[in-house]
TrEMBL record:
Name of the featured protein: Unannotated protein
Organism: freshwater metagenome
Residue ranges, annotated region (Disordered): 1-46
UniProt-listed InterPro entries: DUF3043 (IPR021403)
Keywords: Membrane, Transmembrane, Transmembrane helix
Membrane-crossing residue ranges in chain numbering: 90-109, 115-132
Length: 178
């Protein structure tokens, strides 16, 4: 440990001004042109890697999927959901229609819009409940050694997304048997 007398000694140079200290720490502004080109190449390479990773994710490549979407049972659930139509995937367009109805200055249209919105929401929740039970039963039948925990909610949430907005993209078309 240093003694008090050493701490009291002057350092032999003036304290740099804030601007000087910040300028000294800015490496990128002092870097030669070759390293700027290298940085640009590295940035482009990282961008290309992100684009290819996203494309692989949207295709459904197992290596590119996050942990929540990996595994054969999750793939089965995605295909099971994508092979059917559900009321939940039409909820957002219905909300848009209700918004248009609410702009009409007649009370009956506003009430009708609210009734339509809550009806679709109720049907979506009921459909999700029964869909969750079907998914768990099918997964238990096809993958007897795997847990069904969370798969029902996973499937229901996917069924509430508009088909073209789903990620990873649907691998089967609606109505297709797999």
């Amino acid at each position: 440990m240093t003694s008090t007398s050493e701490n009291n000694q002057k350092k032999g140079r003036p304290t740099p001004k804030r601007k000087e200290a910040q300028a000294a720490t800015k490496i990128s502004s002092l870097a030669p042109a070759s390293s700027k080109a290298e940085k640009k190449r590295a940035k482009e390479a990282a961008r290309a890697a992100r684009i290819s990773q996203r494309a692989a994710y949207l295709r459904g490549d197992e290596s590119a999927l996050p942990v929540r979407d990996r595994g054969p049972e999750k793939k089965f659930v995605r295909n099971y959901i994508d092979a059917r139509r559900s009321i939940g995937e039409y909820f957002l367009p219905v909300i848009g229609f209700v918004l248009v109805l609410s702009l009409i200055p007649i009370g009956a249209f506003a009430v009708a819009g609210i009734v339509i919105m809550y009806s679709v929401l109720l049907f979506s929740v009921v459909d999700g409940f029964f869909l969750s039970r079907k998914i768990k039963a099918e997964v238990a039948k096809r993958f007897p050694d795997k847990s069904t925990k969370g798969l029902g909610l996973y499937g229901w949430l996917r069924s509430t997304q508009m088909r073209r907005m789903r990620a990873p993209k649907p691998q089967v078309s609606a109505g297709e048997k797999f």
